[in-house]
């Protein structure tokens, strides 16, 4: 979603803002803009619909706009279509305030009507313009006084960057329910939606907490709480390399991230297996707690939710405890049955997804203990959880997740083992077998990746289909949901994943000559049943691409038109292998259809609006 960058220092700011925005492009956006102040030219605002390159061309890579304080923004439209005028920064009528915003001002209409009744003229359809106009309305020479009054008036979720022409040595950054990070440099300071935008300039950061306000000038940063009392912030050092957020010779981030999965899983899993046992640092859940547990409630969105679907099958099998998986956006409004004996397992790559965050807070309010699986260190979900297990996937830049999904899956295996060990629901033999199998996942994924050309071949056969079904049973069903989502997201193909047994209850009416059905048949105990479903769709004209394990090679070939085989592995871990060909298939199909793979239309990486 919207990306924010701000800089105050001694250097020319426009190229720094453009560079920072280019590193936030992955978040998804439809327009971009910058506001730069200089003594000579005053407040200069340049905005353009479309890719960042359009803006960059207008300002000649930043050379046309001079000044050493400014704000930049990439917009993902919520209120008002993507257009130059609706792009940020939004500026107050008299041009004194420039504002960039990520989030939604929920009561913007009331404020707009109030200001209009007092003669203020609006030019955009955005909710953000009310913040700029309201600042101007309240401003009487005291910047922080105006900020304070605005904060009392606005409702919703926001990360805000504010530049005031009367205080041109300061940037104000405000955070409520939308991420914002402050970077500390020598003779300059920065703000941004996430650290990727600032890592080139500094690695020392403050993660702002909800309700905090930061005032940056070139020599320092002061952070205040919601009552404008100074806050001592903990300094964090970001230790990943900038190359981790660069393509490094690959054509697309998504492909790079698919290829990085063996390493990401090794980094996530191997240090946590010691002497054949799962060891989780800072993990405070006890045997006594687990014994009392009434339910595990898994809460997440999108692919993270699909990880939860896999985890449900495995946890229930391993632990014999009820597990419910909830879409975060539904959880809050379904009067969930949560007690102080409920464990909320929250899964989020970004750690900032607003629905997941809100659902997690609701679960906590109802008494649940929160354990989260998060990729971004210092993110809000990580900080507000009772326990957090990080996925060490490194920064994921492509909008469509691959390595974050795979590392989240890996963490659920670790958790399943840990819980089963504590609850004593697994024999030593089964435990040892599962741990040993877990350690083979990265090398088995490498085997699949080494044959990626086979999958490219099938993509070439089927890339023209406009309707695809994924079918599977049990874990195969759970992972096919992710395969189907990949195809929707990056190939713009309408695809549905069904529990194969459900087909006959309705969706089979859609199967006709040439419909592509991807049949996941790696759960050997359900192989024959799945093949019956394959026969049913073939009888109605479908082309079937089957995915199964090597040991089913012969049987699979008998029933399907094309077959992809993955190495055999412990049945509970199959999703980690099955997902790889589905990711590659979607990638190659998207490539053949000429889609914008890393930045699919309408999508954003970190979904910070409800
Ligand atoms: C799909 C994808 C999304 C995310 C979802 C949740 O490829 O990436 O469906 O999984 O938006 O995001 P996080 O995990 O950051 O909470």
Topology, pairings included?
Layout (H helix, E strand, L loop, with lengths): L2 E6 L4 H12 L6 E8 L3 E8 L2 H7 L10 E7 L14 E2 L5 E9 L2 H10 L11 H10 L4 H11 L2 E9 L6 E6 L4 E4 L4 E4 L11 E4 L5 E5 L2 E5 L11 E2 L15 H7 L1 H9 L3 E2 L2 E2 L8 H6 L2 E6 L1 H18 L3 E5 H4 L10 E7 L5 H12 L3 E6 L5 H5 L2 E4 L12 H21 L4 H11 L2 H10 L1 H11 L4 E6 L2 H17 L2 E6 L16 E5 L6 H12 L4 E7 L3 H7 L2 E5 L7 H19 L18
Parallel strand pairs: 17-18, 17-19, 19-20, 20-21, 22-23, 22-24, 24-25, 25-26
Antiparallel strand pairs: 1-4, 1-10, 2-3, 2-4, 5-6, 6-7, 7-8, 8-12, 9-10, 9-11, 11-14, 12-13, 15-16
Helix pairs in contact: 3-4, 4-5, 7-13, 7-15, 9-13, 9-17, 13-14, 15-20, 16-20, 17-20
The structure holds fructose -6-phosphate.
Fructose -6-phosphate binds next to α9 and α17.
Beta-sheet strand percentage?
15-25%
Low-pLDDT segments: none
According to DSSP, the number of beta strands is 26
The shape is: globular
C-alpha Rg (nearest Å): 25 Å
Distance between the termini: 11 Å
Tally of helical runs: 20
Report the average pLDDT across residues. 95
Task: List the strand order in the largest sheet.
Answer: 3-2-4-1-10-9-11-14
What structural class do helix, strand and pairing data support?
Answer: alpha/beta
Largest sheet: 8 strands, antiparallel
Heteromolecules bound: fructose -6-phosphate
Percent of residues in helices comes to 25-40%
